[in-house]
Design goal:
The protein is built from 13 helices and 17 strands. The chain is α+β, with helices and mostly antiparallel strands. The chain folds into four domains: 7-111, Beta-Lactamase (2-Layer Sandwich); 118-233, Beta-Lactamase (2-Layer Sandwich), CATH 3.30.450; 239-322, Helix Hairpins (Orthogonal Bundle), CATH 1.10.287; 325-473, 2-Layer Sandwich (Heat Shock Protein 90). The chain has a five-stranded antiparallel sheet. Strands 7-6-10-9-8 form a five-stranded antiparallel sheet, with helices on both faces. It has a five-stranded mixed sheet with strand order 12-14-15-17-16, covered by helices on one side. Strand 8 (194-201) and strand 9 form a beta hairpin. The two termini are 64 Å apart. Residues 194-246 form the PAC domain. It is an enzyme of class 2 (transferase). It catalyses: ATP + protein L-histidine = ADP + protein N-phospho-L-histidine.
């Protein structure tokens, strides 16, 4: 037993036994022969009946889930009188006792809890309102739900509304209903408390973020008969957090693009200029006119390559400067027609079939040139890297999911080995096949165009089966 100058219980591994301190017996006037040091005896013989339910819930949650608590309770002493105590667990003490096991401390107090109910209620209402925290209780036996005043206010329901288990799904956003169901199921069936961020819905269909906390309620037979909890409106904080994360992601993407620029400038451009300097020096040192003529042709080749690299850089810069252009309504079918007309010769020579389906999403607010460029790059890639044993088939489809528009472009080509190239698919000057005309700029440009308008692009591919690009607008 620990040496604390107050009454306490030391919880043992045996769930039906506790060690009660000498001070605990002394304050109540009992000897160790008078009472049995276990939870069931305490509940049935010593604690006031008004405090049984709450203490039982708190104690079992502390025992089973290490959920700390503090509570005022009345305990009967040997003379039959009820003494008022304040009980608290390890982490609810004003000091750190540095204990590796569970304790429950009992501090005697002369203040009757009933005398402070009005004052406590006042502070409770003030705290609930200032922190936007609502309380709720679900009674499994009566199959009823109970809300406090702040819950009605936050969820924007009238005071005469009767919360119901049948309507519980309506209190949560559609994409978070499964999370809510999982939390309640695990709490109700296994006694697992929950503490999570979840998106809720008010009576007026306003979605907001909340911090939801719940714990199981036990009966005398230690069976779970309900769930009690609170939720706090954290919408403003959460949206700022999401906005901050988006900013972090944008900065990360910009850093990635900056790295590509640095690579091109330090490696590709320097390579071109170094070759030019070397050739110029050789031309100066060679007197044979025919040899000089051959080297001059090499200068032209290097100059063309240098010009192409600079054009690529200019295209990337243009994407970043044009992303503030005003978006207009663009029809997918019209954008595809423009692309197909522009590469009709390439399509017919490869016997390519393009199968579009824009029935679910026909149009989008976008920059027309970007959508055309995205379609052009993905279609020409599919044709360039077609499978040698079959004609290319490209399926282009739009669809809606969770309020977002998507574009999916699938082909039956050679595919990409994602185990080798997954992190390089959208890199600049990255190629994955041996086509002589492969440059490695198209997917890099596509990714930049999509992301400059706050979208995302992902790839799924199997070697010799084909590749699917999915764009979320």
């Amino acid at each position: 037993m620990q040496d604390f100058n107050t009454g306490y219980w030391q919880l043992l591994k045996d769930p039906y036994r506790e060690n009660w301190s000498d001070k605990f017996y002394e304050v109540l006037g009992y000897s160790k022969e008078d009472v049995k040091p276990n939870f069931d005896y305490f509940i049935s013989k010593l604690i006031h009946e008004e405090d049984v339910a709450l203490f039982r819930d708190n104690f079992l949650n502390y025992r089973n889930n290490n959920t700390n608590f503090k509570q005022h309770i009345k305990i009967r002493n040997k003379n039959g009188q009820y003494l008022f105590f304040r009980c608290a667990t390890n982490d609810e003490l004003p000091v750190n006792i540095k204990a590796g096991i569970q304790f429950l401390f009992f501090f005697e107090t002369n203040i009757e809890p009933d005398r402070t109910i009005k004052k406590d209620n006042f502070y409770y209402k003030e705290t609930a309102q200032m922190t936007s925290t609502g309380s709720w209780y679900v009674d499994f036996q009566k199959r009823k739900s109970y809300w406090d005043f702040e819950t009605y206010r936050i969820l924007e329901y009238p005071e005469d509304y009767k919360p119901s288990l049948k309507d519980s799904a309506d209190y949560y956003a559609e994409d978070h209903r499964q999370l809510a169901a999982d939390c309640f199921f695990n709490c109700a069936m296994m006694g697992t408390p929950f503490n999570t961020e979840i998106k809720m819905v008010t009576a007026n269909k306003r979605e907001f973020w909340a911090r939801a906390i719940g714990k199981p309620i036990y009966n005398e037979g230690k069976e779970i008969i309900g769930i009690r909890g609170v939720f706090q409106d954290i919408d403003e904080i959460k949206r700022k957090e999401i906005s901050l994360q988006k900013s972090v992601d944008i900065i990360a993407a910009q850093n990635s693009r900056l790295f590509n620029f640095a690579h091109i400038v330090s490696h590709n451009l320097r390579s071109h200029t170094s070759n030019l300097s070397l050739l110029v020096q050789l031309i100066e040192d060679i007197e044979d006119p025919k040899e000089k003529e051959g080297l001059i042709k090499e200068v032209k080749t290097i100059s063309d390559n240098l010009n192409t690299t600079i054009e690529h850089l200019n295209e990337v810069v243009t994407i970043q400067t044009n992303n503030k252009q005003e978006r207009v309504v663009v029809y997918f079918n019209e954008a595809l027609k423009l692309v197909v007309n522009g590469i009709s010769h390439m399509i017919s020579n490869s016997n390519c079939q393009i199968r579009p389906d824009f029935t679910e999403v026909e149009q989008i607010d976008y920059i027309p040139a970007y959508l055309e460029s995205i379609l052009l790059n993905l279609i020409t890639n599919a044709i360039k890297y077609k499978h040698p044993e079959r004609d290319p088939v490209i399926v282009i489809k739009t669809y809606n999911e969770n309020g977002n528009a998507y574009l999916k472009v699938s082909d039956n080509g050679r595919g990409i080995d994602l185990t080798l190239f997954k992190d390089k698919v959208f890199g600049m000057y990255k190629t994955f096949h041996y086509n002589k005309d492969a440059v490695g700029i198209g997917l890099f440009m596509t990714k930049n165009q999509v992301e400059s308008l706050d979208g995302t692009i992902t790839v799924d591919s199997e070697v010799n089966e084909g590749t699917t690009f999915t764009i979320k607008f």
